[in-house]
Amino acid sequence: MANGYADLTVIIPTLNEEKSVGQVLRRISREYNGCEIVVVDDGSDDLTKQVVKGFAKQERRVRFFDRSATGMERGLTASIVYGIMRSTTKYVIVIDADLQHPTEKIHEMASRLRSGCDLVVASRARVTDWAAYRRIISRAFMYVGRAVLFVEAKETCADIFSGFFGIRRELFVSTYKKNSSRFVGEGYKILFDFLKCVDRGALRIGNVPFVFRTREFGSSKAGVTQGLALLRSFAS
Ligand SMILES: Nc1nc2c(ncn2[C@@H]2O[C@H](COP(=O)(O)OP(=O)(O)OP(=O)(O)O)[C@@H](O)[C@H]2O)c(=O)[nH]1
Ligand SMILES: [Mg+2]
Predict the structure, then answer these.
(1) HSE on the CB side for 190, CA within 13 Å?
(2) Ligand 1 mean position, distance from CA 150 (Å)
(3) Residue 50 Cα, ligand 1 centroid: separation in angstroms?
(4) Measured by CB atoms within 10 angstroms of the end CB, which terminus of the chain is less buried, N or C?
């Protein structure tokens, strides 16, 4: 179908993903005719910027933002907010640039949004390559996060920390504008920050399970700073 995805922007945050971002861009532009693609970079010092700019020259629907040139606060959550604010379509879907999120799931996510879901979360049904310590920390954070949402009577979903989700853009923007101080810009858990701001039962939420793939290229940026940022998210 011509322009079948003209109602969708795919937001891709990048930090040093030169080996994978080109493939993610090719897959999305091939599979999702008509969608906009917004790449938000935070000062990559590898070839990520060149790869994305080269692709954007051939594909007019790819827009590239280099936040390092703006002097704004760095961070994954801050970058995603930045991208969503600059999108114009009815729906946005956020996906990582490292090929751990399967682009083929975007079909189902978009169709769930179109059939009335406010938020669609691609939930990590299985994580293939995490070390034992990371599984334990992740599970502990998951329990605390769920407890925070439960006690505050907020929305919850199958994977409260997923970085792969779709949402009605207007819903995100209005929620963010009212609650911007509750979003931790340098953190990695924008979905959790969003859920904290929405009363239980207020949203229709769709769930799309997927297998979180092994990272084949580049390296993880998740570390102590992001762990501390999540603790701040719990408290804010
Ligand atoms: N713009 C921007 N992108 C970031 C930042 N940190 C990470 N990213 C990107 O956000 C996505 C998720 O980061 P990852 O390091 O893969 O985090 P993760 O998937 O939780 O961790 P792994 O499973 O170890 O890969 C990737 O596309 C990164 O390139 C940041 O500070 N700014
Ligand atoms: Mg990753």
Answers:
(1) 29
(2) 27
(3) 18
(4) N
- Rounded to the nearest 10 degrees, the angle between the axes of helix 21-31 and helix 48-58 is 20
β-pairing, 119-127 with 36-41? unpaired
Query: What domains are there in the chain, each with its CATH number?
Result: 8-235 (3.90.550.10)
What are the structure tokens assigned to 168, written together? 């009605």
Residues with CB under 5 A from ligand 2 (ion): 96, 98, 100
Q: Which of 148, 129, 190 is nearest to 165 (CA)?
A: 190
Strands 62-66 and 119-127: unpaired
Residue 160 one-letter amino acid: I
100-105 long-range contacts (CB < 8 A, ≥24 apart) are 100/212, 100/213, 100/214, 100/215, 101/163, 101/164, 101/210, 101/212, 101/213, 102/210, 102/211, 102/213, 103/24, 103/27, 103/28, 103/31, 104/31, 105/164, 105/208, 105/210
